[in-house]
Amino acid sequence: MPDSRPPETPRVELSVVLPTYKEQGNVAELVRRLGAALDGIAWEAIFVDDNSPDGTWETAKAIAARDPRVRCLRRVGRRGLAGACIEGILSSAAPYVAVMDADLQHDETVLSKMLDQLREGTCDLVAATRYTEGGSADSFGKTRGALSRLATTITRKLLDVPLSDPMSGFFMLRRDKFDAIAPRLSPAGFKILLDIAATAGPSLRVAEQSYTFGKREAGESKFNIQIGLEFLGLIFAKLTGDLVEPRFILFALVGAIGFIVNLAALKIALMAGVQPFDTAFAIATFISLCSNFFLNNELTYRDKRLKGLSQLTGFLVFCLFGSIGLLSGVGVAHWIQSSNDGLWVAGAAGAVMGVLWNYAMSSLFVWRTR
């Protein structure tokens, strides 16, 4: 019988996972830099692209067609850095996996030093840091630099994680350690390193490697208010021992904004002479439902964002379940208030009931996994 075994190829020791969205102009240069920095190391680059409209995935696949060290996972119908990192790491068979941005701001020359630390067996994860001796974040603008330092301070005071730069998206770890905690990680959000360190706890031995954060040369920054909201959601989730997931925190926050919108719209409608009161209230409720839906679509469920006709259908379903949630919340509040438990207790219970119902129904029927 002929030997049907595939020919032996050098075992990949290091997989470099590169989550991308609209980074087409950086792909070829990044592969070139990785080749120079990892000379003598069996490595591969795994681009995980969220179906970039600029053709990032096409460029990566074209390079992969002629360079066996490059692979590309094109994600359709879902978005988010954390989810992309998780999928990329789980697709790797290498014993060591690195995660870095594709915007050329992370210094690829320190990858070999990070790998040496893992090879020694004294740590399980090496986090690249801008905030120890030898590191620098001078390329940050004043606002972003201040926000980064504030987030670092909050993290170190509230969560027991041994990281000087928990907001960093540049790290390397043993893949078997990642496999053990992967089911407990959140696919939503941007701060995957913080999630890994907080989820694994003291069982994960952490070391650090200083580096200089570079300037973006092409593409566009992904830093926006959504990242800040997702960061706060992740912090709260970890403080509750993952009893509350980060997405629910965002959903509840959007609900609170919707409540303010409802009151403001009701006040404006009454001042404009809309009568009777029930009509003004109905208009205000509709406006707040619109606000909640579009904010949730852009923030809470960004990785499952609805577009086109599905957005209209989703809005109608959201309004339907939102109305049921409102009625159920009112019912619970009335029942508790009639038991003489106090107005505030009744109101809080009704609000919690409404949020839980709306979140469950939204996740199951509006922004369900497609």
Which keywords apply here?
single chain; 370 residues; alpha/beta; 10% strand; elongated
Q: How would you describe this protein?
A:
With 370 residues, the chain is of the alpha/beta class. It has twelve helices and seven strands. The protein has helices spanning 27-37, 56-66, 81-90, 111-119, 142-158, 175-181, 192-200, 225-239, 246-271, 277-300, 309-338, 343-366, and strands at 14-20, 43-49, 70-74, 96-99, 125-129, 171-174, 206-210. The protein has a seven-stranded mixed beta sheet with strand order 3-2-1-4-6-5-7. Helix 9 packs antiparallel against helix 10, helix 10 crosses helix 11 and helix 11 runs antiparallel to helix 12 (343-366).
Short structural description:
The chain has helices spanning 27-37, 56-66, 81-90, 111-119, 142-158, 175-181, 192-200, 225-239, 246-271, 277-300, 309-338, 343-366; strands spanning 14-20, 43-49, 70-74, 96-99, 125-129, 171-174, 206-210. With 370 residues, the protein is of the alpha/beta class.
Helix- and strand-based class?
alpha/beta
> What ranges have pLDDT less than 50 throughout 5 or more consecutive residues?
none
Spatially, the strands of the biggest sheet line up as 3-2-1-4-6-5-7
Please provide the count of β strands: 7
Main β-sheet: number of strands, strand sense, barrel status? Answer: 7 strands, mixed
Head-to-tail CA distance between termini: 46 Å
Summarize the helix and strand pattern as letters.
EHEHEHEHEHEHHEHHHHH
C-alpha-based Rg, rounded: 24 Å
Beta percentage is 5-15%
Tell the overall outline: elongated
> Helix content range of the residues, please?
40-55%
The residue-averaged pLDDT reads 83
The number of helical runs is 12
